[in-house]
User: What shape does this take?
Amino acid sequence: MTNHLAILQVVLPLIAAPLCSLINQAKACWLFATTISWLVFAISLSLFIEVQTGGSIRYEIGGWQPPWGIEYHIDALAAFVLLLVSAMAAITLSAFQRRITIEIPKHKQGLFYTAFLLCLTGLLGIVATGDAFNIFVFLEISSLSAYALIALGEDRRALTASFEYLIMGTIGATFILIGIGLLYMQTGTLNIVDLQTRIPAISHLHSVHAAFAFFTIGIFLKLALFPLHHWLPGAYAYAPSAVSTFLAATATKVALYLLYRVFYTIFGSEFSFEVLQLHYILMPLSILAIVISSLNAIFQQDVRKMLAYSSLGQIGYMTLGIALFSDAGLVASILHLFNHAFIKGALFMTLACFLFRTPSLRLDDLNGAGRAMPWVGFAFVVGGLGLIGVPLTSGFISKWLLVSAVIEQGHWWLVAIIVFSSLLALIYVWRVVEHLFFREASAALVANKQPIGALLPFTWVVLLSTLYFGINSDFPVQAAKAAAKALQ
Amino acid sequence: MLSGLYNYWIAILLMAIGFYIVIAHSNLFTKMIGLNIFQTSVFILFISMGKVDGGTAPILSEAYTAYSNPLPHVLILTAIVVSVATTAVGLALIVSINRRYKTLDEHEIEQQELEQE
Assistant: This one.
């Protein structure tokens, strides 16, 4: 049993998804999906421990030997990302039951949980698999279910946002498919370990360069890296709150995982950075993402859109770590992936808490909400501090590592940019805090005593974990170092 | 060079046509068709690369010695399913968008969204 954990991780939610649509009863489906997601979390936790102690796991599906059969390959990086994705899925499903019953029509809830489990399957599959074509299939499973989930938002703009995501996402995935095809033409294999050993001998071929280019654009689209980010703010802002929480914490992170996997493992860092000089595009794009998205965030009226733009900026930090092309930069990038997922997840959860009593998440509707709902307001402040990167939060640790990696290379001007964008983050977080605490609450808001339920304690659990990792950062830093080592 | 690789030229031409339709047309339904052409071009790229000159289907028989590679074909079967699913989701979205905006034109939708802000 235990040696099949690598495949169970992915297959469990995959089998649970159609069962969920057969049950098709809101409450039962929720219970079922939540149980499955905690089981998946338990599996990924035990995989994580196994990888930390015994090294990476290679699993042959159906006993077919790779490279003929498909192989699942879980190394330190994959185990770390699996842990993150499954934890966020379990937390989201447990915490959001009441919001889902409010936001989604009753007859659609069974299908909502089905799509959610499929999305989880896809995200986990991308990370777990060691087969290039499998990556494409799982990418599409997660994306297709994500489009459906986003389109369930109440606002009609959710539909157009979802459609835009569908167009951009499909183009991105198809580009990745072209890249896979070109590599297969030249190497005759789809197994990632095989690709890794065969590419150096043929790396001078134009078709390998073309494959690299297609992978780059495809992944940048999925990652929503500036300037290919246009689909993301709408998708996060109009999706049901459970969906925007889950996707904000995991979807772009898995795309980033794909970036590590393709450029470090498949092509090899030497080819990606020394021969093709990937950092010459990655560096300016990261800087533009950091500065322009943070500026954009300042001018948003809808707080969810503001957080979405802030996510784009944070993605810039993660790619900046890669663009530095140093071990320290890579560790900082992976650590920021982990820390930011929980901080952003917690912030989207606090917004969902507000939605119980405020009519929308526009700044004017949030006037005085922090005073009317002190625990939620305080949660936003703590999460916001993490976003800015104030000491004692986990956001500080990863930013600190990033800044030291930058200093190590002597790029002082980059330090200035990071500090400047942190100031921008301070401004956009402060704008919300000002509305939450220093404006008069409307009478309707003060009178509204609707209970928030399980969402608030779960929000605080996630927030306290980010504070804990900010004070005692051993666990994530060690895991990120092991993950970076696995990529070398 | 042109004649030996004509399958790739066709794939690239289709790819460019599909991609152009997605970018240039403002009707959502036309965009969806463009996306389909774009995906189909990739299928052709994959399928044609598996063909070996003079090769047959992979049948185990003494009479045949050269086989075409069946793996790209199998991969594309999966990709076709993915493409069908994408089209289905896209069309479902288009129907819902039409129901709530009363139009399928991107610019008109944008206009309506600006008014809603």
In short: The longest strand of chain A covers residues 57-60. Chain A has a mean pLDDT of 90. Residues 280-488 of chain A form one domain.
